[in-house]
Automatic annotation (TrEMBL):
Keywords: Acyltransferase, Amino-acid biosynthesis, Cytoplasm, Methionine biosynthesis, Transferase. Transmembrane segments: none annotated. Belongs to the AB hydrolase superfamily. MetX family. It comes from Rhodocytophaga rosea. The active site is at S135, D289, H318. Residues 41-323 form the AB hydrolase-1 domain. GO terms for biological process: homoserine metabolic process; methionine biosynthetic process. It comes from the Bacteria. One of its GO terms (cellular component) is cytoplasm. Substrate binds at R201, D319. This is Homoserine O-acetyltransferase. The gene is metX. Its EC number is 2.3.1.31. Transfers an acetyl group from acetyl-CoA to L-homoserine, forming acetyl-L-homoserine. InterPro entries: AB_hydrolase_1, AB_hydrolase_fold, HAT_MetX-like.
Length: 345
């Protein structure tokens, strides 16, 4: 995929009423749009991912895959507030000529979609064949379908919800509490809070996976072992892995944005909002997902007009949306070709 950057040198009004003096957008694009723009696939990424969608969703994107640049024009934009180039806490504040750090304003999922809109207009895109996302990516896709009800032909929502749950908010708050325990968190430097973020990631991983995942992948086979268990080293490894590629300021901002996700805000109610979706919609739940349980996806499918709901099987819980590419591809193809069996739930 080709990586590009758009600089919008004009104020961007956030949902909170605060203003960013300018916005930089980093995005990736692969393939060429047809004259009719009937092959555009816009992928919305999740919490700590980036616009390099062929890397983190390689099972779905690439030559011979579900989304193939030989047939599709595939776009993924790094989200507002993130670590990977789009304006975020490590960007320069023009008012102070210093990095924002703790002073970066709160952003919402709607703000992320607003930045996607800036990019869409810049690219001259009038129609999106498919907008797809999982988790926070699904929250963005759903908001976009409400903000621009005639833009997206096919909407695919995976392991996501209409409003973030008290359960999800509690997990996010626990992670932020971990960051706050890091004595460096108060400092204005790019690596502030890294030790706390390592613990935060360990907490998050427990919600991304489940009991069966750990039993099958991290159990010790040594009956004499009393310490340094595989599950312990795995948590350490995953925390270290994130610290090497992300920053705690973005982690804080994006988790807060997830907490504030509520499609009913300003639209009467969640149900009233969902009833406004015009896109043909596929909702995918993961049976073992404890963070975004399938009841949340069934709720979406119940209240979005003519939406279709399917479940996929995965050992990996919420992370199944990143892993189960074959099942997602099958469900998607059945969806666009109208070959689903009648779903009962």
């Amino acid at each position: 995929m080709e990586h590009k950057q758009l600089n919008v040198e004009q104020p961007f009004l956030l949902e909170s009423g605060q203003v960013l003096s300018r916005v930089q957008i980093v995005y990736s694009i692969a393939g060429t749009p047809t004259a009719a723009q009937d092959n555009i696939i816009w992928i919305c990424h999740a919490l700590t991912a980036n616009s390099n969608v062929a890397d983190w969703w390689s099972g779905l994107v690439g030559e011979g895959k579900l989304f193939d640049p030989d047939r599709h024009c595939i776009i993924c934009a790094n989200i507002l507030g993130s670590h990977y180039g789009t304006t975020g806490p490590l960007a320069m504040d023009l008012a102070t000529q210093e990095r924002y750090y703790h002073n970066f304003p709160a952003v919402s999922v709607r703000d992320m979609v607003g930045v996607h809109e800036l990019l869409r207009k810049h690219l001259g895109i009038r129609k999106i064949h498919t907008c797809i996302g999982g988790s926070l990516g699904g929250q963005q896709a759903l908001e976009w379908a409400l903000i621009q009800p005639h833009l997206i032909e096919n909407l695919v929502l995976i392991a996501t919800n209409a409003q973030h749950s008290a359960w999800g908010i509690a997990f996010n708050e626990s992670q932020r509490m971990a960051i706050q325990t890091d004595p460096t968190w108060k400092e204005r430097r790019p690596d502030a809070g890294h030790a706390g973020m390592k613990t935060a990631r360990s907490i998050a991983l427990l919600s991304y996976r489940n009991y069966e995942t750990y039993m099958k992948t991290q159990s010790s086979k040594d009956t004499d072992q009393t310490d340094n268990f595989p599950a312990s080293s795995y948590q350490q490894y995953q925390g270290d892995k994130l610290v090497k590629r992300f920053n705690a300021f973005s982690y804080w901002i994006l988790s807060k944005a997830m907490d504030s996700h509520h499609v009913g805000r300003g639209r009467g109610s969640v149900v009233q909002a969902l009833q406004q979706v015009k896109s043909k919609t596929l909702v995918l739940g993961i049976r073992t997902d404890i963070l975004f349980p399938v009841e949340e996806q069934k709720f979406l499918a119940t209240h979005i007009p003519d939406a279709h709901y399917e479940e996929i099987e995965s050992l990996y819980g919420h992370d199944g949306f990143l892993i189960e590419a074959d099942q997602i591809s099958q469900r998607y193809n059945e969806f666009v070709n109208d070959t689903f069996r009648i779903s009962q739930y």
